[in-house]
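User: My instructor asked us to take a sequence, write out its structure as tokens, and then describe one feature of it. I'm not sure where to start. Here is the sequence I was given:
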Amino acid sequence: MGRADTSPAGKRGEVHGRWYADGCGAAFAMELIGERWTLLIVREMMLGGRRFTELRAALPGLSAKTLTERLGSLQALGIVEKRHLPPPASAQVYALTEWGRGLEPVMQELGRWAVRSPLHDPQLTMTPVALLLSMRTMLAAERVGDLGLWIGFEIAGQHFAGRLAHGELSVHPGGERLAAPDLRFTAPDARDFLPVFYGKKAPEECGSRLTIEGDPRLAARFLALFELPAKLTG
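Assistant: Let's start with the prediction itself. The structure tokens for your sequence are:
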């Protein structure tokens, strides 16, 4: 029996064309990331590397076996890599490569497109990372102007640091290290942000599950920056 072809050309043939036998780049993209759970695993690494256990916790419907298989495939394709965090963490994490991080604008456009459907249900489970990526997506950059802020987010016990500057919102894990941000938002569930940020309701109208610390006028300016695209009509 001859050896398997492990050359770049051989591997390319095993992936491109395996489902559709179609040379279109969009078809190839689906062959790279179109398996069930793959894009959600990528999403959960978009703000930084994650431990295997963190990925399992974020996606409770995903089995350990399937997660292991998907991570292995993503590594083989060059979308994900293993990294070792320095002390005191000294942990192994899975992180997106530079090419893998290039999927964020793709996911943003998919998100903008999909939420226009009347069938979209925002009350389904949402992870903290998914919420923050949504905020990066739905930020109306033309409204930011010269506004610059440090923002702390505590969502379901997870901490993130946000920086609004130059018309963009960057977010990184570890917002508990922000001793005195300009604004801090805290809620027990990611969905508690939605009626305030996108529905433009006061926290008191939503059971006060989202708490806001900081100058109320500054908070109002920040909240006004986020808007969902209009729903499709018949």
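For the description part of your assignment, you could build on this observation: Residues 1-10 have pLDDT under 50 and may be disordered. Try explaining in your own words what that tells you about the chain.
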